[in-house]
Amino acid sequence: QVQLxxxxxxxxxxxxxxxxxCTVSGGTFNDYVGGWFRQAPGKEREFVAxxxxxxxxxxxxxxxxxxxxxxxDNVKNMVFLQMDxxxxxxxxxxxxxxxxxxxxxxxxxxxxxxQGMQVTVSS
Length: 123
What we know:
There is one protein chain. The protein is 0% helix and 52% strand. It is globular, with a radius of gyration of 13 Å. It has strands at residues 3-7, 10-13, 18-25, 33-39, 46-52, 58-60, 68-73, 78-83, 92-99, 110-113, 117-122. The strands form 2 sheets. Strands 2, 4, 5, 6, 9, 10 and 11 form a 7-stranded mixed beta sheet that branches. Strands 1-3-8-7 form a 4-stranded antiparallel beta sheet, with no helix packed on it. It starts with a strand and ends with a strand. It has 123 residues and is an all-beta fold.
């Protein structure tokens, strides 16, 4: 059974940084995509970033390009999201996810999800 366990959320002031981590277990992920989504109150869950489990391809939501960096550790089966220059509008519950379709940005294209963790950015 695939499990995703997230850590690293919390509260930070605008302009600050947070690093989210996700440990994936219970399967083999060589052909997978690792990703992060977020959901703010009253809004739909939206794609934030994705990375191929093999290779160097990454993809980002336009509003986080240049501020967020997704990376992975294949040995430890972990995916990370380094978030810099955080803005109030980045406040949301962030979810780690895995899927098999590169380029997919809708949550229904992803198969397994973490429990989510709150990121709050204040002015």
